[in-house]
Amino acid sequence: MAGFIDAAVHDIDNRLKELKEEESRLLAARAALAGTATTRRGPGRPPRAAAAPTTTRRKPGRPRGRRGGNTRSAQALELVRTKPGITIPEIATAMKIEPNYLYRVMPKLTSDGLVTRDGQGWHPGKQ
After folding, report:
1. Which element (helix H / strand E) includes 116?
2. Which CATH class is domain 71-124?
């Protein structure tokens, strides 16, 4: 009986050695295909993903996340000039945007004197 157990343990050890060698070859092939070096980090743990860059290149002097030119404001102002009395939901529909954005844009146009509010409608300001 002891001989059988020793033989089974020996067979298992040989098979584990073969599997480790195959794992090494597969990991090397994967790394070559993916263009990254990967190592085994333990049983059941996949290789760590490469970290994303923390900064992005942008043009100097250009504020982050801003398009510049107040495009939405200019569009809203043009709509108010062409259709005096237009409401925010109507402006939003014409511009194909959500109305909540305009509730931030229109007060800025009012403070600049470009539009005035009369009830729910917006009219061109007196310049």
Report:
1. strand 115-118
2. mainly alpha
The CA-atom distances, in angstroms, between 95 and each of 7, 10, 19, 42, 117 are 79, 75, 62, 55, 19
Q: How many CB atoms lie within 10 A of CB 76?
A: 27
Distance separating alpha carbons of residues 16 and 22, to the nearest angstrom: 10
- Are the C-beta atoms of residues 50 and 39 closer than 8 Å to each other? no
Instruction: Return the residue matching tokens 């809203």.
Output: 76
pTM value is: 0.46
Are 88 and 102 a contacting pair, CB within 8 Å? Answer: yes
In whole angstroms, give the CA distance from residue 60 to residue 34. 34
Residue-wise pLDDT for 46-96, tens only, equals 666 666 666 666 666 656 555 556 688 889 999 999 999 999 999 999 998
Residue ranges of the chain assigned to CATH 1.10.10.10: 71-124
